[in-house]
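User: Can you predict the 3D structure of Fe2OG dioxygenase domain-containing protein? Sequence below.
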Amino acid sequence: MSPNICIINFYSKTGKFGLHQDKDESPESLRKGLPVVSFSIGDSAEFLYGDHRDIEKADKVVLESGDVLIFGGKARNIFHGVDSIVPDTAPKALLEETYVKPGRLNLTFREY
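Assistant: Sure. Here are the predicted structure tokens for Fe2OG dioxygenase domain-containing protein:
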């Protein structure tokens, strides 16, 4: 059984992450199309995805705090990235009742 990993990314209000594919896992994990599971916490993000590494051709969706994104199977190797952070969109209770800094925290889980 392959180990599960969690990658943690924090984005400030000017944060971005260019279009890329997640291909660091084992060949077996990639061959099986095992899913990537991503949790968004804090500020919303404009998330890009598509079949090509071309921002102009990419689709865009806004991921808000609490959203979960799962891509696996045929969609496992899509190009994806963060185009921009939408400042001051985190739930007020999250900032008031926790030690979470303003910005976006993303937790990405996958089987390595």
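The first helix runs from residue 27 to 32. DSSP finds two helices and eight strands in the chain.
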